[in-house]
Amino acid sequence: MDKELPWLADNAQLELKYKKGKTPLSHRNWPGEPVPVITENIIQTLGDELLQKAEKKKNIVWRYENFSLEWLSAITQAINLIGEHKPSITARTMAALACIAQNDSQQLLDEIVQQEGLEYATEVVIARQFIVRCYESDPLLVTLQYQNEDYGYGYRAETYNEFDLRLRKHLSLAEESSWQRCADKLIAALPGLPQARRPFIAADPPGKTRNRQ
């Protein structure tokens, strides 16, 4: 074959088209720009939009079944915190609160890392793989479902939302020891995750070292 194959030389740049290049995944060798400081206080307002629609919390109908006792406790605490001050809470409760609020933004994860640390944020992302808020035509009906192997994925599968993938950015910027602890948490979580969620966890930890030979 006469034509030179388009393999990249070491450290060469690859130019991507807009759709592929607008949100490239960071890597520990190429972490990109630092994460900006979040000043919006997103955590404290999680669920407020739902409460504003309902006017009173008692007007919201909640449905959640097939959860473990630990998850039921976390969901109950998350519901109680809507419209209230959010203290330091467990990662599972934070995951439930973000799910109820349907906030899958990068900015929310940035604030969680900023306030609670990267290892806590990693635990929140792992917990988010197990809970989903189902679509309901009634905005005041909140149905939460535990995700297992029987959960059906539609065209809006949430496996690769911005919240989840933002963790990779923070991991790419983390110190080696912090990266390793978070990677260990992600790897340890794999056996218990539904198979449809496992590729995300496998893709989330970026390269181990900044200077590979």
Automatic annotation (TrEMBL):
Taxonomy, superkingdom: Bacteria
InterPro entries reported for this sequence: LolB
PANTHER family: OUTER MEMBRANE LOLAB LIPOPROTEIN INSERTION APPARATUS, OUTER-MEMBRANE LIPOPROTEIN LOLB
Protein name in the entry: N-terminal part of molybdate metabolism regulator MolR-like protein
